[in-house]
Amino acid sequence: MESSISALFVLWMTVLCDDACFVFPSGLVKARVLPISLYNQRNVMKIKLKSWFLAIRPKTLSAAICPVLVGTSLAVQDDTFKFIPAFLCLLFALLIQIGTNFANDYYDFIKGADTEERQGPKRVTASGLISLKKMKIMTAAVFLLAFVVGFGLVPYGGWKLLVVGIISIALGYGYTAGPFPLAYLGLGEIFVMIFFGWVAVGFTYMVQAGGFNFTVLLAGTAVGALSTNLLVVNNLRDVDTDTKADKRTLAVRFGRKFTANEYRTWFALAVVCTIVMAMILKSFLLLLPLVVVPFGMKLCVKIGNPQTGPVYIAMLGQTSLIMVLYCILMSLSLILI
Fold it and tell me: Which of 37, 42, 173, 330 has its CA 20 to 30 A from that of 66?
């Protein structure tokens, strides 16, 4: 048993760290010994783990967490909250986001979208921090783990959830991979709206409450719209390099003015959905999330003017903050009414 566990540990760390070395006191399993000091070895490990942390793109994980939070709050509001399915939904959404990020890192580099001219955050495969082989293996591993987690939701929502899970994984992988990569065809916004809006909010609620309703649809639309704006800012920032790589995002297809108006439209849609939800549930408390409107309006004005790469990166962070604050306040309002 000790030998098996040790072997699995070495295999896992070998994937994470190209030049790692592990020697177990029992002598049952020994990894290759490197001619470097233990101190330097630990530095290598630290650099590799930091590279994987960058590949995960922690700042994007809010797009996975927020819709699950709102969907669960809707279940709490209806007195149908169940911890285990809610937790599994959160884990599944996070794994889909991470797997999509890994695949994006891998395929954007292969297709020439991630170059030195790119103005966004560092990409680990393009910068050589992680090899293409390691990234491909980890992408498959994360999506496989997502499938296992999704399978655990079947008892709470039936076999149709298995179909939804498989489609979600396929779309996550196909965002930048496959013969018809969504991001390269200008379909990225549709993917985000469907998965991080309607699917994530709707099915998080469904596995707890047993069904759907119009309020859940409105909440999913609002959250999805704010999540989509993250992609809109990202595409606007990368429009020049995406054009060279033939990555036909909506920003590339229709230009900066269209993309600025797209951002404003998604934000306005979230506001309208919030107001309608407050009317349906007959609670002014549900208008609390609209405290983000002044901040959103400021960005709606700013995005219409040409900006530099660092400014777009800052706007991306501000857009994410608006989404997080909106979802926290929406969840709090739903629980309190």
Answer: 173
Q: How far apart are CA 254 and CA 265, in angstroms?
A: 15
What is the three-class DSSP state of 307?
A: coil
The CA distances from residue 314 to 189, 223, 290, 307, 308, in Å, are 20, 21, 22, 11, 10
pLDDT at 96 over 90: yes
Q: Are 221 and 199 a contacting pair, CB within 8 Å?
A: no
SS (H, E, C) 117-145: CCCCCCCCCCCCCCCHHHHHHHHHHHHHH
Q: In whole angstroms, give the CA distance from residue 152 to residue 66.
A: 21
Q: Which two tokens stand for residue 1?
A: 């048993």
Q: Is the confidence at residue 133, as pLDDT, over 60?
A: yes
Class of residue 95 by CB neighbours under 10 A (exposed 0-12, middle 13-18, buried 19+): buried
3-state secondary structure (DSSP) of residue 180: coil
56: region left, alpha or beta (phi > 0 left; psi from -120 to 50 alpha): alpha
Q: What is the pLDDT of residue 171?
A: 87
Is residue 95 a contact partner of residue 144, using CB atoms and an 8 Å limit? Answer: no
The whole-number pLDDT of residue 11 equals 44
Distance of alpha carbon 94 from its chain centroid, rounded?
7
Note the pTM of the prediction, 2 decimals: 0.82
